[in-house]
Design a protein that fits this description.
Layout: H1 5-20, H2 24-49, H3 58-73, H4 79-100, H5 107-126, H6 128-131, E1 137-138, H7 153-176, H8 178-188, H9 190-195, H10 200-226, E2 228-229, H11 231-234, H12 237-250, H13 265-280, H14 284-290
Antiparallel strand pairs: 1-2
Amino acid sequence: MRTYGGALAFFAAAGLAPLLVGDAFLRDSLVLILIWGSAAGAWNIAGGYAGQISLGHSAFFGLGAYAAALCGVRWNISPWWGLLIGGALASAAGMVIGFLSNRLRGPYFVIATIAVSQVLLLGASRWRGFTAGSEGIPVPFRPGFWSLGIADKRIWVWIVLALALVVYLAQVYLERSRRGLQLAAVREDEDAALSLGVAARRLKVVAIAVSAAFSAVCGALWAQYVGFVDPLYVFSVDLSLRFALAAIIGGLGTALGLGSHLIGLYLILYGIALIVMVRYAPQGLVGWLRGR
């Protein structure tokens, strides 16, 4: 309970909040906080646990968003199928990226991930016949749970809370399991891990694929909730930075991180917080609290 008490309290409070708070703005903020927190947790699987720092995770988020939106707009099928399709596409893309860039480390891997997101941004912006180009795609509102046309924000809170819980449990598994310990060894010293027989490259590819799949699910739910997909936003480097900074400030390689929904101001706050954290608490908030 000492280890997971904070997480249990957070998830319990988030689950009860829609019943206790009637303000639509606060419910909307909670939905977005949980989505961004889940996306940061998904990034943390690759960046925190596997040590694969990515600034192109918006590529996977955008794939999920477009998959869910296009399923409804082009083929008139449920966005739940789009969620699965987007997750599968992003996972496959993550495996390809992980395999091709497996030998890249440090800034070279970061540059490779940025390049992928920008290629997808250009493709989505120019392919007007399919994605409507830079004009974006409005997601039609079709009432019903199967079509994710849900007006009640309480239901949305519980849907994204379930996603956040799954992402959290995946990170807890990495903290407690043999595979997670092997991944930590790869993150700390890949050459030493390889010399001990750890399948470092395979583990990194799997970590990126899982991280990509979760990011795509976040993108799919975000697209259905917001009702519009814009390539300049969902494939932007700024969005990838939001995921990375949230995980870094919350604590790399820790399951209970940080999500935020502050328009414009969040960049200033993140910048100040990042400077303070690097100077006084390099292990992140969770690591700082554990030390005390």
